[in-house]
Amino acid sequence: MVRSGGPVGQLLASLPVEQRADRYRQYAAQALIRSKASTDPAQQAEYIAMAAGWQALAVEAERSSVAPLPGEIVSQDRDEATSDDLP
């Protein structure tokens, strides 16, 4: 298998959102290629499900580009609303 897009073991979370989404789409494409190469219907279904999962991650990464990843440290520069602020 050919590895592309950076050093092996590089954490996806360390990539900028656009690159992470692209990487997820690459993984989805690879899974679809493998599903087409397989002659086992169960294995084909697993690869297709895997591709759908990678694609969903790509979409989610783009949607939440302003939201931090789990475990990511975010500065608290903006004011946060509290329950005291509610009418």
Salient structural properties:
single chain; 87 residues; mainly alpha; 2 helices; elongated
Task: Describe what this molecule looks like in 3D.
By secondary structure, the chain is mostly helical. It has helices at 17-37, 41-63. Helix 1 runs antiparallel to helix 2 (41-63). The radius of gyration is 18 Å and the shape is elongated. It starts with 16 loop residues before the first helix and ends in a 24-residue tail after the last helix. Residues 77-87 have low confidence and may be disordered.
**Sequence stretches where pLDDT stays below 50 over 5 or more residues:** 77-87
Number of helices: 2
CA radius of gyration is 18 Å
- What is the averaged pLDDT score? 78
Q: Report the portion of residues in β strands.
A: under 5%
Provide the helix percentage.
40-55%
Shape: elongated
Class based on secondary structure composition and strand pairing = mainly alpha
The count of β-strands is: 0
Terminal CA distance: 59 Å
Order of helices and strands: HH
Largest sheet composition: none
Structure at a glance:
This protein has 87 residues and is mostly helical. It has helices spanning 17-37, 41-63.
List the helices and strands and how they pair.
Layout: H1 17-37, H2 41-63
Helix pairs in contact: 1-2
